[in-house]
Amino acid sequence: MTGAVTAAGQDSPDAALELRAEGVRKAYGATVALEHADIALKAGQVHALLGENGAGKSTLVRILTGAVTPDAGRMLLHGAPYTPHSITDARRDAVATAFQELSLVPNLSVAQNLLLPRLAPSGLGLISRKEVIAKGREILARHGLDRIDPSAEMARLPLSDRQRIEIARAIENAGRVLILDEPSASLAETDWLFAQIEKAKARGVAILYISHRLAEVRAICTVATVLRNGRSIATVDLDNASNDDIFEMMVGHRVEADRPSARRATLPGTPRIAMKDVAGSELKGVSFELNAGEVLGVAALEGQGQRELFRCLAGLERPERGEIRIDDMPASYHSPKQALKFGSGVSYLPEERKTEGILAGLSAATNVVLPFLPRIARAGLVSQKREVASAQVAAGAVEMNPRYLTFPIGDLSGGNQQKALMARTLASGAKTLLLFDPTRGVDVGTKESIYAAISAFAEEGGSVLFYSSELPEIVQLADRCLVLYGGRVFDSFSGGQINEQHLVAAMIGHHDTAEQEAAI
């Protein structure tokens, strides 16, 4: 491997260290989440933390932010012992985190969430709503979010704006260290995020950036620490380490990161989905068909109607006008549960796994088998052994480690939660899958497994409609692609026409005519 690779956690003598962790270990019973983790964050530097799902990244983040106490090792903050016992302790020490699974309170206002846990009462012991809203508006303005109403209930905001609020609140509390866990997972664009990071960096804040998107990591980070099986493998200078080098450190062997795409021929017959002139709050009249044996991608910038499109098809929202037909029957279902039983079946992978996907208190195995419990029941009962065995078969399609199946799914990393939900969707028995950002928060190896599973599903006659915030994913997977702009299908591409240049041009409302002009 080429490049300057240092021992994990090593720093140059002229750099100001803000936070150092050495020999950190954490076990949950017989399961060792971290064995020997080391990392050193420098003031004014953006440092990436990379690794597969289950490598220990989430556990290390929880330890650094005070949510979990390590079993061994030590941490230093600006040279002094650092032993936070809660997220509040860490914030008091100017260490703040924007979590992948958002920590916002849904029934409070935007302003209240931004000020938590520092809502100061008045002299009478009461909190002035007017003052809270005013302070919230100031914070939003500082972070370029003036368009968001500080009095709005958090639950009513789209996921992308909730992600921005989570990030803005962390930055407000990060006087020394800012930890960003998959901060772009719900953002279609990174311009706003990177601008906020640059401002924090200019203030001398040490920033830890956790992401599976290497293009982002290279754009904003200068160094990276790689974890594998709970151990720090190396800290590398990103200018001197190739993607292949990094993948090899993450998984222990070379990974084929780019796989040639294969376009499928759709099967004849009635379309699985036929949408005609469907309109709602964001959709302005969308029409398309999805055929058997086809993978249809949806590309769009944020807020172009993709969320409403998927929710209408899943039965979570009703369009104001237009017609949706499933297997040539009017879609008369009004919930994802009903959709699964309608026609040949429609299964939905939701946008936000924490509130729409997982049942946090149940095991991962239970979450996986929920759609097909009747198939594995005996006299109306399902033994844990049978449940785990059935879940293991489904989870194998996305290479989910079987040892996680007995864990409460809420205790797993975001990536492993996504694997469980993807396994559930694929094993539901439905012939049509609605996948909203299916690889959000998963590592490169798991992405390849999910791509292979989607392709195999389509080759066996299944139909897939998927939205992705990552254009290379659409280029690789889709047989056809719809581009939404202004709530309408602005353009569509098929076969060799599907490339990033065409998609980007259409996503901003322009037809890319370069190829046509070159042919004249």
Features of the shown structure:
520 residues; alpha/beta; Rossmann fold; 3 domains; 7-stranded mixed β-sheet; 6-stranded mixed β-sheet; 19 helices; 33% helix; 23% strand; globular; disordered N terminus; disordered C terminus; membrane; sugar transport; ATP hydrolysis activity
Compact description:
The chain is an alpha/beta fold and 520 residues long.
Number of helices, where a helix is a run of at least 4 consecutive DSSP H or I residues: 19
**Residue share in helices?**
25-40%
Assembly type of the shown chains? single chain
**Which fold name fills CATH's third level, the topology of the largest domain?**
Rossmann fold
Overall outline = globular
Just give the CATH class of the largest domain: Alpha Beta
Mean pLDDT: 87
Query: What does the main sheet amount to?
Result: 7 strands, mixed
How large a portion of the residues is in β-strands, by DSSP E? 15-25%
CATH superfamily (homologous) name of the largest domain: P-loop containing nucleotide triphosphate hydrolases
* Main β-sheet, spatial strand arrangement: 1-11-10-4-9-8-7
